[in-house]
Design goal:
A: alpha/beta; D-Maltodextrin-Binding Protein, domain 2; four-stranded mixed β-sheet; B: mainly alpha; MetI-like fold; 2 domains; about 70% helix
């Protein structure tokens, strides 16, 4: 029987287009690092087991490189079968232009709204009451990763919140350490600022600025404290001459740096380096101040193909991606949190469990990608890059410019 | 003028005219048409997809109030001036040396021209490594014993442009040299003999006789270098990605980022229109002087 199956596969392959038994679907994404590739392979495996053919369209170089390629393929009339975007507004206009497949029927039939947690994930896939994407995981930014070795060397206890960290920074410097590791890429400084904002200004002020686009709050008292903290953090990170986030994480792993503000994807690096949470490193969600995490992450969109057979395959893939087994397999490999409240991640490590608890407790905010347009985010990135990389802009100036960007935001 | 004479004018060289129709169409439809389209849409509020909702000069106001754009313009001016000067001077001096009937001229020429065969991406990466303090020149010199030697232009906001310039010159001067060498070879040997008879020093001959005679070569070179400067993008992306901070941003990168990363077409169009305008401001007076006015002999 097996021989026959193999022969049949060969025959089908030989006949090429004439005998399409397994519908092919090209899936583009930017998951190319080791853990990411392993995670996406779980999707591919599940999809092939369901009797379809997964054509992997990985685009190297990260989202910034991949998204322009994906968008120009969709707008240029060469759509793929499915494509990754971050939750939120990156594909907003493509949906508005009617280029994406409506998934509402599958979603309603399977009751996505009942098990997808938090429901804000589904909301950012929704336009005018119709659902256009499948959220697959949750990544949160709000983590401070601390190196136990660095603090031991400096002779100070490992801090439990941002204030203690700031107080310990001079001791770290005296011991020849860089207090805060941060790569030079724009998204890292902009992300770190967002984390500080949630931790220091609190979730209400953050929501007022990022959701209601209230420029008064952005220029107000709470955010002034955020900018002061950021100006202090700018001093802490001064000597970290690295580009990529994982190089910065590596400085924390090796004890050259005291800590790093980075999303939960940094966890994979600690795991690969064989470090144990609580012994070699600590993670403080919400910088230990406000235990809140944002629920950004990845989602898949399905461009319209006008081919009923492919459309069926697209819908099948969509429903596979949210199924419990695939969610567990995928997220364990990816190091991210599942989008279902009803699956059990026993294999998760300490930091991941902390994240799951916060998630279950409902201390969550949407991600910047969900609330701000890519344009506004780009402007904030520009400002943050300038602010974090040189002392020439004071905290007040930066805040004034930030408020101006928020005032124009849409 | 008889009646048969008129159509003759239009149909003269008919084959050549027919043959040039595709190029004429390309120039009119693609270059001019797309340029006009870009300019028109720069006055709209298009985001990811173009749409005709006019907002006046809003995009330009935002462009010129963005400090990243201002820094980009300053950078391209500094880089442009230095790159133009140095590649012409170095290129010419190298060519003059090679023109002294040196041995292994071919070998030298190949060596100097070789970097030009590389793409800017490769050049940028190579120089990023060479200038990286951890692996590059700084660490080599430190390993020789100078422990406090510091050379990290790519990590210093005020030096990063010169780090780009080194890479740009390394790649570009070879071509300039070859063009100059060709120009020098085109100078009649008799002129050298005459200047020697008159006892004019060699440097004076170069400066006051040869260089003015090489005017066409200089203009060709100028155009080549200048167009390279305006579209400076890939070198920056490969070498510094605009950093540290925004210290090495360039206009072309601003345009690309707006168009494709930030999903703000109109802002990118406004940037590219400004770039075009700058080029025209330089080009039109020059073209007027060169081709208009009184004819040179």
């Amino acid at each position: 029987m097996k021989k026959f199956a193999v022969a049949a596969t060969f025959a089908a392959a030989l006949m090429g287009t004439t005998a399409i038994h397994a519908t092919e679907l090209e899936v583009t994404h930017w998951w190319t690092s080791g853990g990411e590739a392993a995670a996406v392979a779980e999707f591919a495996r599940a999809f092939e087991e369901a009797g379809y053919t997964w054509i992997d369209g990985a685009i190297a170089g990260g989202g910034g490189t991949a998204r322009p390629v994906m968008i120009s393929r969709i707008t240029g009339g060469d759509p793929m079968g499915a494509t990754q975007f971050n939750h939120g507004r990156q594909a907003e206009e493509l949906v508005e232009a009617g280029l994406m497949l409506d998934l509402t029927e599958v979603a309603e039939a399977e009751g996505w709204r009942d098990f997808i947690h938090p429901t804000s994930l589904l909301d950012s896939c929704t336009l005018d009451g119709r659902i256009y994407c499948v959220p697959v995981n949750i990544h949160s930014w709000q983590w401070l990763w601390l190196s136990h070795k660095a603090f031991e060397d400096a002779g100070v206890p490992v801090p439990t919140n941002w204030d203690e960290f700031a107080a310990a920074a001079p001791a770290l410097e005296a011991a020849g350490k860089i207090p805060l590791a941060m790569g030079n890429q724009p998204w890292q400084s902009s992300g770190a600022f967002g984390v500080l904002a949630i931790a220091i200004a609190g979730s209400e002020a953050w929501e007022a600025v990022n959701i209601d686009k209230n420029a008064d709050v952005a220029g107000g008292e709470e955010y002034a404290r955020v900018f002061e903290a950021a100006a202090a953090a700018r001093e802490f990170r001064k000597n970290s001459n690295v580009q990529d986030w994982n190089q910065a994480t590596n400085m924390v792993i090796t004890g050259q740096a005291g800590g790093q503000i980075m999303g939960d994807w940094a966890q994979g690096e600690f795991q690969v380096a064989g470090q144990v949470a609580g012994e070699d490193y600590s993670c403080l969600p919400g910088l230990g101040v406000n235990e809140i995490i944002s629920t950004g992450g990845d989602a898949f969109y399905f461009p319209k193909l006008n081919d009923p057979e492919k459309e069926a395959a697209q819908l099948a893939l969509a429903s596979l991606m949210v199924s419990p087994e695939v969610q567990v397999a995928f997220n364990l490999k990816k190091g991210s949190l599942p989008i279902r409240g009803d699956v059990d991640l026993e294999a998760a490590n300490d930091c991941m469990k902390k994240g799951l608890e916060i998630l279950a407790g409902g201390n969550i905010l949407p991600d910047g990608n969900q609330t701000l347009s890519p344009d506004t985010q780009g402007q904030i990135e520009d400002l943050m890059t300038e602010f974090w990389s040189s002392d020439s802009i004071s905290a007040e100036d930066a805040q004034r410019r930030y408020a101006a960007i928020i005032a124009q935001a849409d | 003028m008889d009646r048969a004479g008129r159509p003759n004018q239009l149909f003269r060289n008919l084959n050549a005219k027919i043959a040039s129709i595709p190029m004429v169409l390309t120039a009119v439809v693609i270059f001019t048409g797309a340029t006009l389209w870009t300019v028109v849409y720069s006055f709209t509020n298009s985001r990811l997809l173009p749409r005709l909702e006019f907002v006046g000069f809003d995009q330009y106001e935002r462009l010129w109030s963005s400090s990243r754009w201002i820094v980009s313009i300053q950078n391209i001016m500094i880089y442009g001036t230095l790159s133009l000067t140095f590649s012409l001077v170095i290129g010419f001096v190298l060519a003059a040396f090679l023109d002294q009937k040196v041995r292994f001229e071919n070998t030298f020429r190949t060596i100097f021209l070789y970097p030009f065969a590389l793409s800017f991406i490769v050049t940028g990466l190579v120089w990023q490594w060479i200038l990286n303090p951890e692996f590059g020149i700084q660490s080599v010199v430190r390993s020789w014993g100078w422990e406090n030697f510091v050379f990290d232009p790519l990590y210093n906001q005020s030096l990063v442009l010169y780090g780009l310039l080194i890479a740009g010159l390394w790649q570009g001067t070879g071509l300039v040299m070859c063009l100059m060498l060709a120009g020098l070879r085109g100078i009649d040997e008799e002129i050298w003999k005459a200047s020697r008879v008159d006892g004019i020093p060699v440097w004076k001959t170069y400066l006051f006789i040869i260089i003015p005679m090489m005017r066409p070569v200089f203009i060709t070179t100028l155009v080549l270098i200048a167009s390279g400067i305006v579209r400076l993008y890939d070198l920056v992306v490969a070498q510094t990605s605009g950093g540290p901070g925004i210290a090495s941003e360039v206009p072309a990168k601003y345009v690309y980022d707006s168009l494709f990363l930030r999903q703000n077409l109109a802002q990118g169009f406004a940037g590219s229109t400004m770039m075009l305008l700058t080029v025209l401001i330089v080009l039109i007076p020059w073209a007027y002087l060169e081709f208009g006015g009184k004819k040179r002999d």
